[in-house]
């Protein structure tokens, strides 16, 4: 058993001199200089000098956890604010060559998703996963007050030149408030029936654009009356920005496109498609548009024509999904690679693996049925790879989850849809609104039924056309695992693992005995079950970078925090059962562990490096 560390641990990925070591989450142009700030899952923000489309990193700023946002100060042009999942906001003076920030605002109660400066360059608005939008004075770090309270995660904030603050959240609420010197405020509200995760004021400050999860972008006035509503596509719109002259709306959507719309009437002028783009953030400069990416650097697009400028981002190989496929462990990566590890050699000094490029962008989900492999991509495709041929089914949203079912597979999408898929890559059954939110995980119960877990906090069971609620968490559900059609375990952002016995009775799935396991006081990302339903071992990986194990027994042991089997340098991304006693565990730090649980003893039996596995076979 490895050392237990109660403190919040820092991301410790290898530093790349050419860019980030993980996907780019946010982009922000400097107002007057050819500088671009980026934030990344690698726990750093970077400042890039941009010359003729070439990106040169000049400064690296480190947080303890992933960085969600950057914001340039409107008055002091060498000052940058960064927001992080370590629950802090840091203010950096770039004229200081030191590694420490000039100011760190007091620890928030949850991850900080976005920040924006007021025009005075002294006050900063911070929005958090806890739903709050708070106002701070950065000169002395004073909390001035709470401006808005959302009932779900507050995702975005922007401030116009008059000091009006706009916030948007997963509860569908959009607010505009005018802070006074003490932080109190009054303003307008509009509530949508769908999550709103992006907002941006026009350069004039008169209009506010909001990005909606139902595929629309709305333009609102300062009173939040609708000026324009433009349908962009079936996929969720995630980010929006205005061109430098306010003539164009630049919309990042989860169909992998950046859409260029005329601000006057919403007409699409052009769009850029790149599976490496992660358009959760889009920023417009005078001659170039910057876009987040699944690689180690941002994408740059020509502001007038939408074509790419400069080199493509370097690949990163974060593992998002695993499944056992014949005698191999298949891993789906951010780079679009499918890594196949020969299980017979996995514990040897010479593991055998092959790497095949099956997508240009991230592989988010995997499932296997016999000799057929199903892969779901961020671009919205389900790739069905059979021994004799390969087929592709195009869906309208990222395919966030897959499980084998009924001789084929079932896909769950970012938009909450369940889709039954046969071997010929044909959709044979659909349930458009199975969940009100992204379906994060699926797992087979038996030959006829499966469970689904989603951001709407629900766990359900059944078939595509009929779902029975099993339980709810206090926050979104990240992962689900099953064992012997009797036991189900879920991992949630509410910091718990729930385990329950289920049965099919009177035509419906029901829950009998259930219990809750408490581990790290952070979001639990991945879960797995080993052993037998009457004596299981529960594995759970968390955003505190630990892998924990419990053996609950017949009465559970909710108040124990589990045995720490391993510590990673980033969050644990997924757990996959190989057989009754063995599971594979992948972390976003590039490590893959094989864990064995037998005779009341849990141990790590192999440690592998995912980058090395990718190098073993040349991608096709």
From TrEMBL:
* WD repeats: from-to residues: 17-58, 60-94, 105-146
Entry annotated with the keyword Repeat: yes
Is Hydrolase among the key words of this record?
A: no
List the InterPro entries. Answer: Quinoprotein_ADH-like_sf (IPR011047), WD40/YVTN_repeat-like_dom_sf (IPR015943), WD40_PAC1 (IPR020472), WD40_repeat_CS (IPR019775), WD40_repeat_dom_sf (IPR036322), WD40_rpt (IPR001680)
Q: What is this protein called?
A: Repetative protein
Query: Keyword set for this entry?
Result: Repeat, WD repeat
Q: Which organism is it from?
A: Streptomyces heilongjiangensis
One Pfam entry for this protein is WD40
Domain of life of the source: Bacteria
């Amino acid at each position: 058993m490895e050392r237990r560390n109660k403190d919040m641990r820092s991301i410790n990925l290898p530093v790349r001199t050419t860019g980030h070591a993980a996907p780019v989450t946010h982009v922000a142009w400097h107002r007057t200089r050819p500088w671009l700030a980026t934030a990344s899952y690698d726990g750093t923000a970077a400042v890039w000098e941009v010359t003729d489309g070439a990106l040169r990193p000049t400064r690296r700023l480190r947080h303890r956890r992933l960085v969600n946002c950057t914001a340039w100060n409107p008055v002091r042009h060498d000052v940058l604010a960064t927001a992080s999942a370590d629950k802090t906001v840091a203010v950096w003076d770039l004229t200081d060559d030191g590694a420490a920030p000039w100011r760190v605002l007091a620890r928030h109660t949850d991850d900080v998703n976005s920040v924006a400066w007021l025009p005075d360059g002294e006050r900063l608005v911070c929005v958090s996963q806890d739903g709050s939008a708070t106002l701070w004075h950065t000169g002395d770090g004073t909390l001035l007050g709470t401006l808005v309270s959302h009932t779900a995660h507050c995702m975005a904030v922007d401030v116009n030149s008059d000091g009006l603050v706009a916030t948007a959240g997963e509860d569908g609420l959009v607010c505009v408030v005018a802070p006074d010197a003490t932080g109190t405020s009054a303003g307008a509200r509009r509530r949508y029936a769908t999550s709103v995760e992006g907002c941006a004021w026009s350069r004039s400050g008169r209009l506010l654009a909001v990005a909606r999860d139902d595929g629309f972008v709305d333009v609102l006035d300062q009173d939040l009356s609708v000026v324009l509503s433009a349908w962009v596509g079936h996929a969720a719109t995630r980010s929006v920005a205005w061109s430098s002259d306010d003539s164009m709306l630049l919309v990042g959507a989860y169909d992998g496109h950046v859409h260029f719309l005329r601000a006057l009437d919403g007409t699409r002028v052009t769009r850029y498609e790149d599976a490496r783009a992660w358009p959760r953030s889009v920023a417009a400069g005078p001659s170039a548009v910057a876009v987040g990416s699944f690689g180690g650097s941002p994408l740059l697009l020509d502001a007038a024509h939408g074509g790419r400028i400069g080199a493509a981002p370097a690949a990163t190989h974060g593992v998002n999904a695993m499944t056992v496929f014949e005698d191999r462990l298949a891993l789906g990566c951010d780079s679009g690679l499918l890594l196949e590890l020969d299980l017979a050699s996995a514990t040897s000094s010479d593991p055998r693996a092959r790497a095949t490029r099956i997508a240009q962008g991230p592989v988010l989900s995997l499932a296997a049925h016999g000799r057929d492999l199903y892969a779901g991509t961020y671009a919205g495709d389900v790739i069905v790879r059979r021994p004799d041929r390969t087929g592709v089914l195009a869906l309208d949203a990222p395919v966030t989850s897959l499980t084998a079912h009924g001789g084929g597979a079932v896909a769950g999408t970012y938009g909450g849809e369940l889709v039954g898929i046969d071997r010929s890559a044909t959709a044979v059954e659909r349930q458009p609104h199975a969940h009100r939110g992204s379906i994060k995980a699926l797992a087979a119960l038996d030959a006829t039924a499966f469970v689904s877990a989603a951001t709407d906090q629900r766990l359900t069971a059944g078939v595509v056309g009929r779902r029975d609620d099993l339980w709810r968490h206090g926050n979104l559900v990240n992962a689900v695992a099953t064992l012997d059609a009797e036991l189900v375990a879920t991992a949630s952002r509410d910091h718990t693992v729930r385990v329950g016995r289920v049965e099919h009775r009177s035509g419906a799935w029901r829950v009998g005995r259930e219990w809750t396991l408490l581990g790290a006081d952070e979001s639990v990302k991945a879960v797995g079950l080993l052993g037998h339903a009457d004596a299981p071992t529960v594995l759970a990986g968390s955003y505190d970078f630990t892998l924990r194990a419990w053996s609950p027994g017949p009465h559970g042991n909710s108040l124990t925090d589990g045995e720490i089997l391993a510590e990673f340098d980033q969050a644990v991304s997924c757990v996959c059962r190989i057989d009754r006693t063995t599971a594979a565990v992948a972390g976003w730090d590039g490590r893959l562990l094989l864990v064995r649980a037998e005779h009341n003893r849990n141990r790590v039996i192999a440690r592998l490096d995912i980058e090395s596995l990718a190098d073993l076979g040349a991608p096709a």
